[in-house]
Amino acid sequence: MYRGKRILDLMVGVTAVIVLLPVMILIAISIWFTMGSPVIFRQQRPGWRAYPFEIIKFRTMSSALDEQGNLLPDGDRLTRFGRFLRSTSLDELPEIWNVLRGELSIVGPRPLLTQYVQRYTPEQMRRHEVKPGITGWAQINGRNAITWEEKFKFDVWYVDHASFKLDTKIILLTLLKILRRADINQPGQATMKEFRGTK
Questions:
Q1: Angstrom distance (rounded) from CA 1 to CA 7
Q2: How many domains in the chain?
């Protein structure tokens, strides 16, 4: 990875905390009033070299259960406020703390579910040769509106071409994507479909 990437992460991360802390506090209060506790969603994700870490996000789903006591599908549990948070990417603001702790980078392949690791092809697994990121090359080239295979190709391309100039470009284009609320979900899906492996 290029020199200075950690410095860029710290500069952007510290600035984001200073500027966005009031917004994060307001979001936390709103989640508490609309959904109760916990306010933060925590989950194990594979990071650099697939080493697990705990990612933190703002909670966007309720804990609603069906008659058998099982969680309802994501689309049924995603609240109105949660949908807003996702469409604006505000649910990902707590990930700044992951960046400051060195578990995430500002730019890199998005950290996906742990069970996906064993389903990757050797080429797809290369996405773990760098730290995962809050945003990445795949996010500005389709985000959740593209297929898993396309997403992984963008991730691996980033691994081979990462640079300060590219990271700066990705950060700026990400801000434009957020303002336009583009490519949030796959058509007809509340979230991205589960990755079952490449046939």
A1: 12
A2: 1
